[in-house]
Amino acid sequence: MTKILTSDEWADDWASLDRDQLTEILKSNDLIIPNEYLLYQSIQKWINAENTPERKGSTLTATLIQILPWIRFPYMKAEELSELEGTPLAQTHVKLFMPFTHTAFKYISLPLSLRTTSDFTTSQFLLRSNTDLSWDNRIVITNEQLYERGVDHSFKISTRASTVDPQTWNWTLKFTIASTIPNSHDQLKVNLASDDIDHSRSVEYLISVVGERKILRQVCGMKNFTKTRYHTDLDLQSKINVNELFSENSPLLVHGCLHLQLNLRPVL
């Protein structure tokens, strides 16, 4: 997707998309892109493409009403949102943009513990597979992995560090479904470990189970990682009965897979 958005080779194909095709692309949570702002800039190029009178005037208003709900404004940086609000497009359609940018500014300014309300569960708050280093990661547990009992499935995660100089913090998230006692009910365990830790790291975490169109379950907390206590369980099992995952047409799964979002924020 990055090549389509940034390469001249694909510019004409991108510009020739009709409104419904663009909307279907924006609905996808599986897009692999550097960040949401790059996608928004490409939408601007699509709108401003030559020989597209249907994207001007009152028709543009109808187009924005259709596509804006599928742009993930909350995962833009504050400076990107501010720049966006100053563009001619947003200035001309203030009433359409303001609800989305206002909610995004509110979302990024709040601690993770206050993001678990119903105000922040719509498609706007679903992560894509962004490749830029950030504090947010998307993890997919496949159907095959779900059915492997007692196996630690490890996912390597990199985030920004809470330092002035650009650095990376590395993490390992382990997902396991296991029975701790013979004949007992299966238990879901999610463990987060801080890799190669030199100094203590205090972070807030928010881990979410997400569907195709909204956030379904969430757990938040605060943890301090040190050299001696470098991993901790994230209490997702308090929100999920394992039997729900294996019920027919489970609402917690997307095409048989479990989709998780992990949001971390440093506590300074």
| CA-CA gap between termini | 36 Å
CATH superfamily of the largest domain: Apoptosis, Tumor Necrosis Factor Receptor Associated Protein 2, Chain A
Q: Secondary-structure element sequence?
A: HHHEHHHHHEEHEEEEEEHE
CATH topology group of the largest domain: Apoptosis, Tumor Necrosis Factor Receptor Associated Protein 2, Chain A
Mean pLDDT: 93
The CATH architecture name of the largest domain reads: Sandwich
Q: Which sequence of strands runs across the widest sheet?
A: 3-10-7-8
User: What structural class is derived from the secondary structure elements?
Assistant: alpha+beta
What is the gyration radius calculated from CA atoms?
20 Å
What are the segments in which pLDDT stays under 50 over at least 5 consecutive residues?
A: none
Number of strands: 10
User: How many domains comprise the coordinates?
Assistant: 2
Sheet with the most strands, sense and barrel status? 4 strands, antiparallel
Per CATH, the class of the largest domain reads: Mainly Beta
Beta-strand proportion = 25-35%
Please work out how many helical segments DSSP would assign.
10
Tell me the overall shape: globular
**Helix content estimate:** 25-40%
- Which oligomeric state applies? single chain
